[in-house]
Amino acid sequence: MQRKNNINPEILDYEEFNLDEGIKFGILPGKVDDEEKLIINESKLIDALNYYNKLSKNLDIVITDKDSFERLLNKYLEVKSEEDFSNSSFEEDIEEDISLDEFLKDSVDILKTENSAPIIKFVNSMFFQAIKKRASDIHIETHEYSGVIRFRIDGVLYLQAKLDKNIIGLIINRIKVISNLDISEKRIPQDGRTQIKIAQKNIDIRVSVIPTYFGEKVVMRLLMESEDIPSLKELGFDATITKGFKNLLEHSYGMILVTGPTGSGKSTTLHSFLQTIATPEKNIITVEDPVEYKADNINQIQVNPKVGLTFASALRSILRQDPDIIMVGEIRDKDTAQISIQAALTGHLVLSTLHTNNAAATVTRLQDMGIEPFLIASSLIGVLSQRLVRILCECKKESKKDSEKFYELYGQNVKLYTANGCPKCNFTGYLQRRAVGELFIMNDEIKSAITEAQNEILLRSLMKKHGMKTLRENILELLISGETSLEEAIRVGLKD
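^ that's the sequence the OP posted. Answer follows.
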């Protein structure tokens, strides 16, 4: 009989062992240092030893702490439930339409038992609901006396369930187990990944866990496959901008920047660009944080600052890999900006993103980073500033109040609509999103103005003079055509 704390045992195929009874009495077969053992939960030592004495075939005992035992227990429960989960039909779950709140009400007594299977079912149900409702992120938050689950749908967070605080800890532990994170570590942030299978389709999930004042908070990003990347036409931009994209992507070198706030669809647009120009003759390499779309026809690098793999260091290595096209997930600092511009000037097509509010601000932002104006003018070939606007569902209703407000703001009599809500749109009033943007393709006059370090206001007026349709004008068109609401138009930048 040994005692080992803080271990991570592997499951063991041990014939004639009753898993349900093992869970009940706190004893499970497992491998520790490649040796077959029976692992005992120290908090159930007496019950476990009594059950051990009844077994006909015995292994040596290892007594361990509760957290170590739970790691092994969760692995067994995961294997037990995996077949049901993998074979579950996404369509069947839609028909059942059981909310997470209802699930908890039905299962709250079971959660107090020794069997953790209801937690597994709840987490599985949560993933099903997230996919069904088109959520991009799942937030699990711990407050002082309770916790909540929220889904980000079309860029906005919606409350899905309120939880007892004792339950939320079990759910977070389950997520840690399937993401290969340490369930006993609650003091520092942890990042991991997991994968679920729904209707024969694998979905990668990026997991981030951070400690907050009252407990842990988990955010899970549902990552997409290459087949989910929309085409240029499907992005939703108007015909003029889409045509401009195609012209830009025909360049063999230079830099194309996509700008906008967090969550404005920049990464999706960049990957759409890459899929448009990807051919077997081209060597395409990306540096991302994280890799949000997995694609088979491009080489993707995920940054890892812990080992020194930053955007800048990865870019330096990429230039020795004979690339044709380079995609940098985000330009965050002067080093990354300088290397990207040098790559664009030495015969590579470079695509990247930047956090600015409009196309003209992109130039001044690069100058703020310390990039010389003449280098910006020489390397930059086009800038797209974009937003994602929620489109009203067919259940929309006319709003005279919004029409009156619009008249006060802009002096126009326009028939406006507002969100209503129905089962089709999950009672949000909106169904999917559409990208709007302002695209400027560089010309000699703008290059000259940049070289002379002209200010943002002058650059913007020059861009408009050369036919750039602004973000505000595009959002206004969606509003007047009845595709979105005044509230949504203001949220994404109508007044900017």
